[in-house]
């Protein structure tokens, strides 16, 4: 808005909330989708959609008898990634904040449109004043809305200017109506500016949702990863390391193997238990972070995550992903709407080179008693800022430069999106290749461990070979879990970089 627009906004808004209320008072009342642990490469994972009202949990926000928001699902319920995303989009406070800001921006559009319609003001007042006349002096009062008639001596002969401190009643009531007719783009440009700003705020709300979907997906995968790693180390401790220790103790007591085998297997067992403790701690941390991402921080609903890792062949290509990203990314759309808002503001400022036309009408009833003096007025008011020391020119130039800055931001973001999509896609492809290699490595380690077990049982191999094979297999099994996790996170990163997760 220019400096010329500020006074009429002040005049229109403030009186309408105060003076008109007084008149009314006098008048009367009025994913990588996770599916199976070792699914076929032909499986087609799909990033989950938010829960539909017909199939998902009831996420209606209500308060229980303690005034707290109840859990979206019963404690211990089974939870898919699809349900988790739907809960986060309903419960996370950042979503509520973004929605409130978007709603506030929409209300600004309505506020801007109100300036296109008629503006009706009312005033009523009572004063106990002295009655000394003011002769032919004329002036305007009440923000220049109601003209004051020339004052006269109330109870004295004509021409008598004697002063008195006696007081009398004075009553004033009136209505004023103003209707915008023409301003060459000032008010309509303001409406367009607010409309594009509201659209940009909606895009920013979508950006919040996009980031939250990725965070929830990653936290969900973190829980799956740490839980699977815990199982890997539990198996290493309970089924392998303890079995090796028992076998070494039996052979050592029978003088078939040296006591060194017992000490070595005891050390490996303790080392495996240390890894298990670390894995369990990582799992507990992942669960806490997952509930926080859902917007349920501070609660322990104990949901059972039912999805598991899977992978499939990649059919997308870089060019199609980049096109989707440039078309769907909400941050790109937000910048484009901000540029349009700057264009609308330029139209507003340029309107100051031309006149503004308003139709006005008014009625007043003033007097010191009954009957009061009734007056009305009707007419056209044309305002034209002839010279304002080049203020309008500078405002137009400033806004044009700000729009150029946004255009540069758009180009910077375009290049950043291409980089993000390219990096995420390459990571996704590499993760698929690593899964195949990790699977083959794990299978070879399993064979090596089985052979080492047989050789040690037949006294053909030593304990060092057995424990080395066991350590390799445990590490390779953990690597395989980590590669499945990286594939799922990379797929989710591609969906975030392209904003495809918003449309699923």
Percent of residues in helices comes to 55-70%
Low-confidence stretches: 1-67
Instruction: Give me the count of strands.
Output: 8
Structural class: alpha+beta
How would a textbook summarize the main sheet? 4 strands, antiparallel
Give average pLDDT, whole number: 83
Query: β content, as a range?
Result: 5-15%
Q: What strand line-up does the widest sheet have?
A: 2-5-7-8
What is the H/E string?
HEHHEEEEHHEHHEEHH
Shape: elongated
Distance between the termini: 40 Å
- Counting copies of identical and different chains, the oligomeric state is single chain
How would you characterize the overall build of this protein?
With 504 residues, the protein is an alpha+beta fold. 58% of the residues lie in helices and 12% in strands. It is built from nine helices and eight strands. It has helices at residues 5-27, 81-91, 93-114, 186-253, 260-293, 318-328, 330-350, 391-457, 463-498, and strands at residues 78-79, 119-130, 139-141, 146-148, 167-182, 304-305, 356-367, 373-383. It has a four-stranded antiparallel β-sheet with strand order 2-5-7-8. Strands 1-6 form a two-stranded parallel ribbon. A two-stranded antiparallel sheet has the order 3-4. Helix 7 packs antiparallel against helix 8 (391-457) and helix 8 (391-457) runs antiparallel to helix 9 (463-498). The radius of gyration is 38 Å and the shape is elongated. The two termini are 40 Å apart.
